[in-house]
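hey m, so remember when u said the tokens were messed up on ur end? i reran from scratch. heres the input so u can diff it against urs
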Amino acid sequence: MAIDAIAAKVITSVTTSSAATPIAAPASDGGESFGASLARLVDTVEQSHAGANSAVNGMLAGQTDVHDAMIAMQRADLTLQLGVQVRNKLVNAYQEIMRMPV
């Protein structure tokens, strides 16, 4: 039996599930606007938390396995952490610009 090597994957976008659209999908004209990227990030965070809530409710009702609910909760936590880190970087950049002499 042959064992395949683990291939490193480069993360090019963040998605809520394997069938979801990426957060920062480039448009044909060079990319989407900054505001649209932030709005999509916030929507992704909200969708992942809604998915985690429904997975936990499904687990309590006996429709979903425990590990599926835990995976959904971890995915929601990671997307929230990503959103918070993006916000922190934006606030730091804004504060740095405001400190520049005119």
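this time it looks ok to me. The radius of gyration is 18 Å. if urs says something different then somethings off w ur setup not the seq
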